[in-house]
Design brief:
single chain; 359 residues; alpha/beta; 2-enoyl-CoA Hydratase, Chain A, domain 1; nine-stranded mixed sheet; two-stranded antiparallel sheet; 12 helices; elongated
Length: 359
């Protein structure tokens, strides 16, 4: 029997070929999606740690943050802002610390650690203004811790802490006060006369030479000059007292107490406490605890930090003229000119312009 198809019948087509394509194996095997999720989590942790690292350590060129006390692993901070030595430079290390704190949102309170005999009227007033600006803009509580001496311009800056109760701490051995103004003036005219040297300066007006240490004056001229200089002293002194009244409200309403506290005398810590110039006898740690309290925080949840000056660079060690090294010590022309210029100081010393610039 024939198996050939009948004439005209359609030939049957071969069955279609089916190609099965296997998907490539996952890059990380069967647990790839879990590994990818873990990788994302790790990246987020690293980013967080990097941010914490940057907040704990300092960028180069500015004040270098150092751990002081409390919880070294805490993120939020109490900044110990140090004011040391003569207050001469308005844009020095104190101003750098203020700028650093203003930009650091993790700082929740500030302790002003002051160990200074004071400085110029202008520098003291400028830094006081910057400290008040910092406190108001950031709403940061401030507490003062006085070191061995917090006198005159140093006390002026202590008033930047405001009028909260129990915020001015003095150590048992602190000397403070010296609330007053001085314009140092020296008369070398008699000495020059012995050497047959005469001041023959030419000026647009006699008052242009006011305060000159080499000009010989008649008694009436000397009295007139002293009256003019006394007017400048009195104006600066009134401003000092207004700053004290703002920071010490208990003295503002008691004229007798205010007069006793503002004679220019330096007081011991106990004397200053009796007069109302300080609130507590205590150390820096006590001031830090009070700052945490004012910030509404547990001290154990905060890291107290301080600032060191940035390490010196090669350019800072070289002078602007010819790359010569600056002398480490000695009297410069700037200091000699400063000594010859009449200037008002909130300072406890008789020779202010020979002080090294403080921090």
């Amino acid at each position: 029997m024939s198996t050939e198809p009948a004439p005209g019948a359609a030939a049957s087509s071969p069955p279609p070929q089916i190609v099965v394509q296997q998907p490539p194996p996952p890059m990380f095997g069967r647990f790839g999606r879990y590994l990818l999720l873990a990788l994302i989590v790790c990246v987020m942790i690293i980013i967080g740690q990097a941010a914490s690292y940057r907040s704990y350590f300092s960028p180069p060129g500015g004040p270098q943050e150092k751990f002081h006390s409390l919880n070294g692993e805490a993120t939020d901070k109490i900044a110990v802002l140090r004011i040391e030595g003569g207050i001469i430079d308005s844009d020095g290390f104190v101003k750098q610390q203020i700028d650093r704190i203003r930009d650091d949102r993790s700082v929740k309170a500030v302790v002003l650690r002051i160990d200074s005999p004071g400085g110029t009227v202008t520098a003291s007033d400028y830094l006081y203004h910057k400290l008040r600006e910092l406190s108001d803009e950031r709403e940061l509580p401030m507490v003062v811790s006085m070191g061995s001496i917090c006198a005159s311009g140093g006390y002026y800056l202590a008033m930047a802490a405001g009028d909260e109760p129990d915020i001015i701490f003095a150590e048992p051995s602190t000397w403070t006060g010296s609330i007053g103004v001085v314009i140092p003036h020296y008369d070398f005219s008699g000495l020059l006369a012995q050497w047959n040297v005469k001041d023959d300066s030419i000026a647009s007006h006699p008052n242009k030479l006011m305060g000159s240490p080499t000009r010989e004056l008649a008694p009436e001229e000397r009295a007139e000059e002293r009256e003019l200089l006394q007017t400048l002293v009195d104006e600066s002194f009134e401003r000092f007292k207004s700053i004290v009244r703002a920071g010490r409200p208990q003295l503002a309403g008691d004229d007798d107490a205010m007069d006793k506290a503002t004679t220019g005398q330096v007081f011991s810590a106990e004397q200053a406490k009796t007069l109302g110039l300080v609130d507590k006898i205590g150390f820096l740690d006590d001031a830090i605890d009070r700052a945490a309290e004012l910030a509404g925080r547990d001290p154990g949840d905060l890291r107290a930090i301080k600032y060191d000056e940035p390490p010196a660079t090669l350019s800072s060690l070289l002078s602007a003229e010819g790359g010569a090294l600056r002398p480490a010590a000695g009297v410069s022309l700037t200091k000699l000119l400063d000594l010859s210029a009449p200037r008002a100081y909130y300072l406890w010393t008789w020779l202010p312009t020979l002080l090294q610039e403080g921090r």
